[in-house]
Amino acid sequence: MTSVIEQETRAPGRFLRLPEVMARTGLSRSTIYVRLGEGRFPRPVSLGARAVGWIEAEVDEWMRARIAASRGREFLEMGSTCASGGRGDLSVKHQPGHAMLRALDEWFSQL
C-alpha cells in the first residue's frame, strides 16, 4: 500500500494544453484565465520558456467538483459508479488527492 505522500508525488498522468482544457471544460480561453486569477481553476505548470500545461487529474477533479456543486450531495454519494462499470466501488470522495471533493462533502453535510 502506498502512502498519501507517495500517491501525490507520483507522475500525475499527463499534461493538457490549453485547447484540450478548453474542449474538456467548455470554457473559453478568457474564462479560464479569469478563473485562474480568482483562484477558481487549477494552476498550469510551466513546461518550458513559453509553454504551460494543466495536470489532467487536477482538471478532472475540478470538473467533478463543479458537477458536485451543481447537483449537490447526491453526486458525491454516487461515487464514480460510471467509471467503475456500475459497481460503485470507486467512491471519489474518499480517494487520496481529492481534497476539493472532501471539502464539498463536508460543506454539504453541514446543510
Summarize the structure.
This protein is mainly alpha-helical and 111 residues long. It has six helices and three strands; from the N terminus they run H-E-H-H-E-E-H-H-H.
Question: Can you characterise this structure?
Answer:
The protein is mostly helical and 111 residues long. The protein has a single domain (10-109), classed as Multidrug-efflux Transporter Regulator, Chain: A, Domain 2 (Orthogonal Bundle). Helix content is 51%, strand content 10%. It is built from 6 helices and 3 strands, in the order H-E-H-H-E-E-H-H-H. The protein has helices spanning 4-9, 18-25, 29-38, 56-71, 73-78, 99-109, and strands at residues 15-16, 45-48, 51-55. It has a 3-stranded antiparallel sheet with strand order 1-3-2. Strand 2 (45-48) and strand 3 form a beta hairpin. The relative contact order is 0.13. The model is unreliable at 83-96 (pLDDT under 50).
Class computed from helices, strands and strand pairing:
mainly alpha
What is the CATH topology classification name?
Multidrug-efflux Transporter Regulator, Chain: A, Domain 2
Instruction: Give Rg in angstroms.
Output: 15 Å
Percent range for helical residues? 40-55%
User: What is the chains' assembly state?
Assistant: single chain
Give the count of structural domains. 1
Q: How many E-type strands?
A: 3
The number of distinct helices, counting runs of at least 4 residues, comes to: 6
What's the overall average pLDDT, rounded? 76
Q: Helix-strand pattern, N to C? A: HEHHEEHHH
Strand content: 5-15%
What is the 3D form?
A: globular
> What would CATH call the architecture?
Orthogonal Bundle
As residue ranges, the low-confidence spans are 83-96
How can the largest sheet be summarized?
3 strands, antiparallel
Across the major sheet, the strand order is: 1-3-2
The top-level CATH class is Mainly Alpha
Through-space gap between termini: 35 Å
